[in-house]
Amino acid sequence: MLAPGSDGALAPNRNLLAARVLLDELVACGVRELCLSPGSRSAPIALAAHADDRIAVSVHTDERCAGFFALGLARAAGRPVALSCTSGSAGANYLPAVIEAAHSQIPLVVLTADRPAELLDSGAPQTMDQHRLFGSFVRFSQAISAPRADAGWLRWLRTRVGRAVEAATGPNAGPVHFDLHFDEPLTAAHIPGDVPPDLAQADPDGVLGRAEGPLAPWSHPIATAPRDALTHLGDLLAGAHRPVVVAGPGAARDAAEAQSILGLAMLIGAPLLADPLSGMRRPIAPIVTGYDAFLRDPEIAQRLSPDIVLHVGRTPTCKHVWLWLERHRAVRRVAIATGPEREDPGLAGTWFVRAEPGWVANALSARLRRSSADPEWAKRWNRAEEAVGQARAQAREDAASPFEANLFDALDQAMPPEAQLLVASSMPVRQLDAFWAGGPQRVVANRGVNGIDGLVSTALGTAAAAPHRPTWAVIGDLALLHDLGGLAAAPRLGIRSLVLVVINNGGGGIFSYLPLAQTEAAGPGGAFEPLFLTPHETDLRSAATLFGLEYARPSSPAELNEALQQTGSVRLVEYVVDRERSVARHRQFWGRASELVRPLVETT
C-alpha cells in the first residue's frame, strides 16, 4: 500500500506518483524483483523502485542479458518478475527473452519507457513505435498515457496492472507489456502544485491501494476435467493392453504431482517415460529414462508398439520418442494439459484434455477398478531400462579422455538433493537425457524455442532466485560466447553458488550428429566446418579473468570432481571434449545399448 513521504506528500511530481502507484500495485500482485537497465526516459520507474524497500532491484547494462536474467529468476522463484528499460531500441533487446518466456509460460512484466505520444513520428531522438512491440508473444499489452495526477486515472492504472499480472500468471502464463509514456520531468524534482495534497481523500483505494492485496483481485480457475471425459478416458485406459505414459518437460510441478502421475501409470500397467525436464526423474519408483538409447533402433521401436499413449507435459526433448510416436501414429493418443497449446508435432490427431495432470491422475486412480494391461508389457520396458544402465556404466569406464557421460555422472555425485541444474538446449540437455538416470534435483532448460541465447544470464537469474540453494549450469562453448556479456552480472550483483560448466568441443558439436555432417564435405575446402561447426580459438580462461570469476579446466576425473564442488562463488569450469571422439563414443554407446536391449524385448 502506497504511503506518503516524510513530508506528507505522495510524490514530488506526477511522473513519480504514477511510477510509485504502478510499482505499488505490482507488489500487491506478487512482484518482488525488478531487473532495471539504466536510461533517462525510464528514470521515474528507477527512482520509485529504489525508494521502495519491498522491491529488489538488479541493474543490468545490457537489456538482452536483463531479459534472460529475469526469465531465470521468475522460473526459479515461481512468481512474476518485472523488467524496465528506456525508450528507443532498448526494449527490442528484450524480444528473445520474451519469446522464450511466451513459449515456456514464464511470467514477466515488461515496462518499456516511451516519449509522450505527441513526439512519436516527429523525428524526436531515441523514439520509435513501441505499440505492440512484442507482437503475439505477450499475453497482454497496454499503452499508458502520460501520467495524470487524477484519482480516477490512478485507479484505472491499478486495474490495468492487476489485469496484466492476472494474464501473466494464469493457466497460459507468460510475459505482458506496458508501454509507458513519460513527459518531463524525469527526475524527482518537486513541482509545486503538480500533485494535489488532498488527492487521496476522494478515492483512498484508487490512489493509495489496498493493504490486503490488489485493488481488483482475481482467482485462477481450477482445471478439472468434465465427468464424461474422465469416464471415457478411464474406459480407454482400463481396456488398454499396452499403455504408455510419456512425461514431457514440465509434466509435474512438484513431488506430489509426480507421485500422482506415476501412481496412475503403475495402476494401468504402463511404463512411464520420464523426460529429464519433466520433474518425474525422482527416486520414487521404476521409471524409464534410457529410451533415447534404444528407441532409435527401428527393430526395438517396432517391437515396443503401444495401443494407447497418455502424454503429460510438453513435447519430449528426445527426438526418438516423438519419432517413435509418429511410427505409431494410428495409436490413440491423449494429452493432459492446462494451457491452450497443442503439443502434437506429429499431427497424430491427439485428444487434448484441458485439466491439471495431477488432478486427472488422482481422479482416474480413484475410478479405475481394473487393468487389461499385458503383465509382460511394463516388464519389457523395465528390462530395457536396466540394460541401458549397464551400457551407461560401460560408456563411463573409458576415462582416458573427457566424455560427456563422465561429466553428468560427476555432476550427479556433486549435486545435493536441494540443488538446481540448468542445461543448455543444444547437446547438453540431450546428453543429460541420455546419461542421467535422475534424482531429486530441480532441472530446467530454455526449451520454449530451444535457443542457445541468453543462457549465461538465465543461469545467473536462476541462482539469484535462491541465493542459498546451490546451482549448476551446463552449456556449450558457443552458448557462452553468445552471452559472454552476461558474466558481468555475477560480480556486480553478488551472485553466489553457481558452477557454470562449459563443454568446449570447438564449436557447434551438435551438427556432427546431423545429416549435414555426411552430405557436406568435411575438412579443408568443405562447407561443413566453417558454416556449421564455427570453430573458434577463444581463451575461456581469459573470459573468466575479465569478469573476476574462478576458473578450472579439469583434465582427469579427480580434477573434474574437485572443480564441480560448490565454493560459495561463481566458477567457470571448462570441460574440453574432443568432438570427433565424442561422436564416436556416443555411437558406440547407442550400439551397445541396442545389442543389450534387443533380446530383452522380443515378443512371442
Description of the structure:
By secondary structure, this protein is an alpha/beta fold. It has 23 helices and 17 strands. The chain has helices at 14-28, 43-50, 63-77, 95-104, 151-169, 204-208, 227-238, 255-267, 291-294, 298-303, 319-327, 357-367, 377-397, 404-414, 427-435, 455-465, 477-482, 489-493, 516-519, 528-533, 540-546, 557-563, 579-597; strands at 33-36, 56-59, 81-85, 108-114, 140-144, 176-181, 243-247, 272-274, 308-312, 332-337, 351-354, 420-423, 442-444, 471-476, 498-504, 550-552, 570-576. The chain has a 6-stranded parallel sheet, sandwiched between helices. The chain has a 6-stranded parallel sheet with strand order 13-12-14-15-17-16. The protein has a 5-stranded parallel sheet with strand order 8-7-9-10-11, with helices on one face. Helix 1 crosses helix 2, helix 3 (63-77) runs parallel beside helix 4 and helix 7 packs across helix 12 (357-367).
